[in-house]
Design goal:
Order of helices and strands: HHEHEHEHEEHEHHHHH
Distance between the termini: 50 Å
Shape: globular
Enzyme class: transferase
CATH topology of the largest domain: Beta Polymerase, domain 2
InterPro entries: AadA_C, NT_sf, Polymerase_NTP_transf_dom
Helix content: 40-55%
CATH architecture of the largest domain: 2-Layer Sandwich
Number of strands: 6
Catalytic activity: streptomycin + ATP = 3''-O-adenylylstreptomycin + diphosphate
Keywords: Transferase
Organism: Methylorubrum extorquens DSM 13060
Oligomer: single chain
Largest sheet: 6 strands, mixed
Strand content: 5-15%
Length: 294
């Protein structure tokens, strides 16, 4: 039987679930990179919100993984940096976030390879980007949208459930430091609507990963939070979902300060619950953010 039939079916599914703006930016990325470094990128995959059916043009980045036979070096690095600088000027929003890998890197996994080039908020870096972690490989294996190259399922992709759990647990502490500043301006990040959306849904997402081993979209993580956590937390979760999914709708809070108070308390409580529930940190006491009684 011809192999074209599965490819056509896969392409149809991707078209149905992937935001056209994300697909258009991926096509533009390929066109610019192909012109700068011909025949270099052999595989291009969308991950993140675009792959999880939750792309929001005003909030989301276009997350990608580009794959080649070898890592880019010297002249290719310079050409890629120039190409991404041009892309950032021509298409600043939504920004590109992604990494450049070799095929062997997909099989070796994030802990088995050295850091390398990537893009963060549209800016190209030779190393030090934030997407070299188990979550990226997990989304590649489960949900990636193939723009060019073979399906990730056919590449011998690395899979590490325990690594994903440990990464999520470490991210809980890292995110607390990001979202809750330990000084008089504590919670300043949470005064802004996008900060509330990132913190509340992000913490729901980490809790979901620790509970299930599956990476959800941010919207699905929020819905999980409504199902999982006590009704006292539903208002702040609904507010975070409103910001993400219906920003034109009325805010559920009278003041940003009131919203920040609830967001800050929720983030702390879910972090405590995530730690208590993780098999890596048993015995830390009764969870502070109780799930609903079953």
């Amino acid at each position: 039987m011809s192999s074209s039939l599965p490819d056509q079916s896969h392409e149809l599914v991707e078209t149905m679930i992937t935001h056209p703006l994300a697909l258009g930016i991926a096509d533009t990325l390929l066109a610019v990179v192909d012109a700068a470094v011909p025949d270099f990128v052999e595989g291009l995959y969308l991950v993140g919100s675009a792959a999880l059916g939750d792309f929001r043009p005003l909030l989301s980045d276009v997350d990608f993984v580009a794959v080649s036979r070898t890592r880019p070096r010297d002249g290719k690095l310079a050409a890629l940096a120039e190409a991404h600088a041009r892309l950032a000027l021509e298409q600043p929003i939504p920004a590109l976030d992604g990494i450049y890998l070799a095929w062997d890197d997909l099989r070796d996994g994030p802990d088995g390879i050295p850091d390398g080039p990537g893009v963060q908020q549209g800016l190209f870096f030779e190393s030090g980007c934030h997407d070299w972690h188990p979550l990226t490989w997990s989304v590649l294996g489960a949900s990636a949208i193939t723009i060019r190259g073979p399906l990730c399922a056919g590449t011998g992709l690395w899979c590490g459930a325990a690594d994903l759990e440990q990464w999520a647990l470490a991210s809980v502490d890292r995110c607390l430091g990001t979202w809750l500043e330990p000084d008089e301006a504590e919670g300043a990040t949470l005064l802004a609507a996008d900060g509330v959306e990132r913190a509340v849904l992000g913490m729901c997402r980490l809790h979901y990963i620790l509970a299930t081993g599956v990476v959800p979209s941010k919207s699905n993580a929020g819905l999980y939070g409504l199902i999982t956590f006590q009704p006292a937390w539903h208002r702040i979760i609904d507010e975070a979902l409103r910001i993400r999914r219906a920003p034109e709708a009325a805010c559920l809070y009278e003041t940003p300060g009131e919203r920040r108070r609830d967001a800050s308390a929720f983030v702390r409580a879910v972090a405590d619950d995530a730690r208590a529930g993780s098999r890596w940190e048993r015995g830390r006491g009764r969870p502070a953010c109780r799930t609903k009684d079953r």
